[in-house]
Amino acid sequence: MVKELSKAAYQILQKNWKNGFTIPTSKLYPFQWNWDSGFTSIGFSHFNLDYAIQELQSLFSGQWENGMVPHIIFHSEKETTYFPNYDFWNANVNAGAPNKPKTSGITQPAVHGFVLENLLNKFPDNEKLLAFTKDIFPKIVKSHRWFYQYRDPKREGLTFIYHPWESGRDNSPLWDESMDRTIVNKDELPNYTRRDTSIMAADERPTSYQYDRYVYLLELGKKYKYDEQGIFEESPFLIQDTLMNAVLIKSNQSLINIGKRLGLDVKEIEEWQQQAKPRYIEKLWNTDLETFTVFDLRGEHAVLHKEIGGLSALYAEIPNMDQAQKMNQYLWDLHQRGFFICPSFDVDSILFDSKRYWRGPIWPQMNWMIYHGLEAYGYYDTSKIVQSDLIKLVSQLGFYEYFESQKELVPHLKTGYGGSDFSWTAACTIDLLME
Ligand code: GLC
Fold first, then answer.
1. Domain count for the chain
2. Residue 211: its pLDDT value, please?
């Protein structure tokens, strides 16, 4: 079973490989996505280390002069089936955006530090990988520096996002209040046509109300030439996100580990880390909810929901033992109550929707991170369930983008949700099967 499933997964990665990089899935996402390609690289490394390396190289070919790694790299300018395409982003209003490849103007979770460490742990003596590490290490450090320099103007040790797409969790209910605060005057919004809902079922996708606001925030970025200061002052959406910061902290740690191993200077990274980790606990832990919550900088309050980003702190080993124990208990209870773990949003909230994208389903790459987090704390019973739940879903429903989280509904389903033959689903399955 393991052999067959990982073979099928590898075939998907090969199918989605476009001569130097991997698309998440054909039709819906026909370019290279930032954090997707990190997980894909890990998946590829089991079969083809060259591709794993090239995947990251291609991504960083889109890095901006200021250090930002964009969330989409449009390697082909001929592919016109996606909205918003490179011309709509018009990233070149920023003088530091590359002309080729074209890119979007926002970022995504900074997975690349921990991805690199994952590859190095697998192939500690591989000459090609070591040479690649020396080349990419300063680029990853530069991308972290960008976060702390431009996305943390008050020097708190916590970075902000100004667009839901940056969080990787596009339509999470976490953003609802900020979306409502974003007043959109339809006459001032450029005309646009969504492509996603002509490819996917509309009830699995963000609503048009949300899409108008995504476009509004994109326009806001463009208006300021994607320069953070103006955006920070004006954006109605301004969030210190649990997942973004946890991933950054995890990758900081990986860079420190790699740097020490290879005799590289890590002082600056250690300074970021010394501030970020305690600040994360201090500002984002919520005693009543027993989880980490995102902070709305514009509204100046914590957003009181339990959801998957808070749990990702386990992967960065941020929680103390008591906090980790509470988070583990929460996941264990969900398991006992008949849910696959980990649902992306609080199953007891009226906003929970087990089908609609980031409002409740299971996401493979989140399971991958939380599996490793639980292992790090020694919660092996729960980690094994997180691992086997994903493998069960993939075996029964295929390599889809995301999955139903209510166990009782799965026997009535023929497939998962969203895009099929999905790269990070294949990649995370391979890696979890090999554990
Ligand atoms: C969606 C997801 C995002 C992902 C992208 C490509 O926008 O929300 O996390 O990176 O699709 O798969």
1. 1
2. 95
